Amino acid sequence: MRTLFTAEMSELADDLIQMSRHVESAITRASEALLTQNVDLAQKVIADDAKLDELEATVDERCVLLIAQQQPVGLDLRTIISSLRISASLERMGDLAQHIAESARRAYPESAIPEGHLEIITGMTEAAKRAAGEVVTLLEDRDLNVAAGIVSDDDELDQLHSASYKTLLESGYTGSVQETLDIALMARFFERFGDHAVSVSRQIVYLVTGDHTGSRSHF
User: Is 175 left (phi over 0), alpha (psi -120 to 50) or beta?
Assistant: First the structure.
């Protein structure tokens, strides 16, 4: 019975890694679609989000069955509960990548990025892609130094998010209502993507250290 439980726990970990790789692919392709007006690539990101939803459902079902059938305690129970939370964060990250792809598709054949915001949005795509790659590595290796990198990327996304809003309030800004809405939403999508990456990192910190406060002292 214990051998079966160990195998199920291993499959649970593999499912989360698979989800994280899907998220990394989604944000990478959504970013490219956004920056290059590639509507076909944007459509693929949107269509593939259903696969991530299916993976989340698989993880959730596995966790519920493990709790019901195995009655885990201690670290095993912590791992299962954390896996549910990580799964939810990864699914949300996939949704945000989908939203970014939808912004690119909606604006096609024009760019969804208003003039004057390209540098800020490009910076956000790079930080988001780094964070997504680090989430994959963190789930594979559970290295807290990687968790610190995710927090750093989130800080950069927060700063760029604030910068994007400041440009909308400048006296010389002449963007249309639609352009203003597009940049505000897009910056928010990237900022929230970073927040969910940090949520994943905090769950791994909790599993490794037992600290559930989210303290940065472990980074």
Answer: beta
